[in-house]
Amino acid sequence: MKKLIFILGFLLYVGSTNAQFKKGSPSSPSLLKGKAVYTQYCLPCHQADGGGVMNMNPPLIETTYVLGDKTQLINILLKGLNKPIVIDGDKYTNPMPAVSHLSDQQISDVLTYVRNSFGNKASAVSAAEVKAVRAKK
Amino acid sequence: MIFDLLYIKKFTSVFKPLYVHLDLNLFEMKKPNYKIFSLIAAVILMSYSFTDRKDDIENAGLTLPAGFSAATISENIGRARHIAINKNGEVYVRLAKLVDGKGTLFLTDDDKDGKFEVKFSFGDFSGTGIYIKNGYLYASSNEEVFRFKLDKEERVIDPNNPEKIITGLIAKNQHETKSLVVDNQDNVYVNIGAYSNSCQVKDRSLESPGMVGCPILDSAGGIWKFKADKLNQSYNNGEHYATGLRNVVGLDWNNATNSLFVMQHGRDNLNSSWPKLYTEKQSADLPAECLYQIKKGDNAGWPYMYYDQIQKKKILAPEYGGDGKKEADSKFINPTVAFPGHMAPNGLLFYTGNQFPEKYKNGAFIAFHGSWNRSPLPQEGYYVAFVPFKDGKPSGDWEVFAKGFAGVEVINSTRQAQHRPCGLAQGPDGSLFVTDDVKGSVYKISYNQ
Q1: 3-class SS at B38?
Q2: Does the ipTM exceed 0.85?
Q3: What's the burial of B367, exposed, middle or buried (CB within 10 Å: 0-12/13-18/19+)?
Q4: Residue (of B103, B188, B128) closest to B423 by Cα position
Q5: Predicted confidence (pLDDT) per residue in B328-366, tens digit
Q6: DSSP string, B39-96
Q7: Burial of A69 (0-12, 13-18, 19+ CB in 10 A)
Q8: Which residues form the signal peptide (chain A) (predicted)?
Q9: Same domain, B376 and B405
Q10: Are residue B186 and residue B285 in the same domain, yes or no?
Q11: Judgement on whether residues B189 and B241 belong to the same structural domain of the protein
Q12: How many domains does chain B have?
């Protein structure tokens, strides 16, 4: 019974937070699923706070890589990134492996999560957008 | 008297917010709670009386064994990596990133107030390695090694015209820094880190196998030996001294054994690349960060194996058919000391001074930069450890020597650490110097009995 109340409460909570988002804005179930994908595949390098690691793994906070062109961002996940990048004058050199084994929905969820976490605020990435970029190769 | 006035000012400014807070509380309370008030007052007075009057923060925020003290001798100097100290106690620091176009700082304490200032900076190349030996200062970029002639006071004579003794070393994004040390026969030993995590076909990828006969090892993943006094040496005239070392940042020449010792940075991603074989916990603990004594021709086994400090075995890497249990070829050398995983040993120093107690003589200090690849578990390291040595071998377990650099108790994300220990050096009076490459602090640790 306690469990049931908890689940009902949780659904109510999710429902109420979801209602706060306007149409086209990132929805919170997507953010929750995105957080799960982030924790498993991204967090080991980009860290729990999205702050990255000095010299090695770039931060995901307020950078054009994350907030800018969605196609480029989707491609970083589909193809990996094997060249050094410079953010705010600091160089980050570790390679990022492709995570193309993730589904369109998982990539959409995790990118929506990253674009709306760690102080970021940007539009959601849809599974259809991921699918379109994946189809182009 | 002036001191007291200063401290009253400091006292009031520090606790101003508390007073405001107290006033509000008293105002809101129907009846003033004198018990709470006196308790808070007592805490304020106690914390004030425990404040060190000489330093802003006692022991520069570090926790040390009894009898030791620490002070920050420099702050905000840049991304301070390795450090060398001349016979007069003046300090050379290498920078990971140029400051005003220069990569090496020369710090002195001209007014003898215990704080070192940048006297001048030189060398238009950033990097990590630096070492003083036989009248020369050696400094490395990520591709080359230079040396500067020193005068009788061990100051650089011509900072603008070093000799380029080594060139063309591989630096391909990962493990680029070239740490170095010079032995007593004028040979320079340089680490060339592997530009890969575990030589996978697809680096750091999910279940990607290891490349057959790892091609990286021909020009990286090992130690190369060069002559100190020959110009423009490279792979063709250097000696491939040791192989199978993924990446070494901390290394030192041990005069008691007359041999090279290195601290290897062990591999990452056991769980994220091989989730069916390793749990997150196993991946956070493994593999060991190893101290190796290196003889000519040694092979430490990367990428084919790693050392498991829990099983105390050399284990076949999953990229090469391992499952976490299968043992590796016994031809690979054993570590001298195996530390927990991912703590990133960036500095190694064999202590030869007379200032510290007898226990420390000839023992090894290791500066652990601190982990990032233990996530989602909390990070570890961010301290200086010590291993006692007798007759060239460890004579006891390793222990934490100086901790508190990070400034926070629990680190989940690397960025939370306010300082990270990196380089180590011994001053002429036997003090131990530690650099920090986050905020650019230099710590001096002394023994006062």
Answers
A1: helix
A2: no
A3: buried
A4: B128
A5: 999 999 999 999 999 999 999 999 999 999 999 999 999
A6: HHHHHHHHHHHHS-SSSSSGGGG-B--TTEEEEEEE-S-SSEEEEEE-TTS-EEEEEE
A7: exposed
A8: 1-19
A9: yes
A10: yes
A11: yes
A12: 2
Does A94 contact B176 at a Cβ distance shorter than 8 Å?
no
Tell me the fold of A27-136.
Cytochrome Bc1 Complex; Chain D, domain 2 (1.10.760)
Number of Cα atoms under 13 Å in the Cβ half of residue B16: 6
- Flag if A44 and B174 touch (Cβ within 8 Å): no
Same domain, B116 and B35: no
Domain span holding position B32: 2-50
Contact yes or no for A54 and B438 at CB 8 A = yes
Buried b (16+ CB within 10 A) or exposed e, B336-359: bbbbbbbbbbbbbbbbeeebbeee
Indicate if B208 and B328 belong to the same structural domain.
Answer: yes
- Find the CATH number of the domain harbouring B62: 2.120.10.30
Per-residue pLDDT reduced to its tens digit, B5-25: 334 333 334 433 333 333 334
Looking at residue A49, its amino acid is D
The answer to whether B203 contacts A97, with C-beta atoms less than 8 Å apart, is yes
- Using a CB–CB cutoff of 8 Å, tell me whether B96 touches chain A: yes
Residues of A in contact with B267 (CB under 8 A): none
B72 and B43, same structural domain? no
- Chain A residues within an 8 Å CB radius of B415: 47, 49, 51-54, 59
| Spatial strand order in the sheet of B289-294 | B248-254, B259-264, B289-294, B337-339
